[in-house]
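Slide 14.
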Amino acid sequence: MNGALRIRNVLLRTFLLSYLMVLGVWWLSSADWYYRLLNYFYPMSQMEMRTFFLYVISFAKIMAVMFFLLPALAIHLEYRRDRKKEEAQ
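Slide 15: predicted structure.
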């Protein structure tokens, strides 16, 4: 397997794992017990905490797409283009 394809596969797996982590944070942010636990350390209203988690989740999703999915797609498209050129020759 080509080194670029391995990097692409690693980036795709990392993207999927980061989205699973985002789903986990979303699930935790909706739990009332998690709010009570964090409220002990950081006194915030429930609305402020949900807004904070919304910003964190949105930021994590954007970073996952920018740092993992877009480079993986670029490598995939570049490899596919090179493979088509080799088949045409």
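Speaker note: DSSP finds three helices and no strands in the chain.
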